[in-house]
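Session log. Operator J.P. requested a structure for one protein chain; no other inputs attached. Running the standard single-chain path with token output.
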Amino acid sequence: MAIDRWHRIRSRLLHDCRVFRLNEVGFERNGRETPDPFYVVDAPEWINVIPLLADDRVVMVRQYRFGTESETLEIPGGMCDSGEAPAAAARRELLEETGFAAACLVPLGSVHPNPAIQSNRCHSFLATGLTREAEPTPDAHEGFEERLVALADIPALITGGDISHSLVVAAFYLLASRKTG
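Structure written below.
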């Protein structure tokens, strides 16, 4: 049985925040408008990079996150700038957050961070052939502490809650699926 398709009939910008726009959106299905509007977060495409050293250690960053008001253990990631391809953003974010450049960047796949309210995707990459090119250059809202973590330890760090960022977990899942698939 097919689901009847919803159609957007209107959209109104409620607020433009530096990293996303909040829109009030109306939909209809089968000629009937939804009784209440939906709220959609329009954000740029995002990227995540798993930087893997030759000795099978992952270059990770510990950083403060304002949403949870806590430090998290993550891989480099961020937003694509306007008109920037995800692979280019991945190389830029890798260099900015770790100081490493990659000889090889392999796309692992992409996920919708939260399709119930967000319009964007997060693209994950594996970076290998790493060379240290510079020191990390965080922006005014960032600060990083580098951590080198054995790839074999990642599943335990996820199940133990040390790695709790869902998009980081998704990136490692995509990597594991690639290796076993």
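Operator note: The mean pLDDT is 94.
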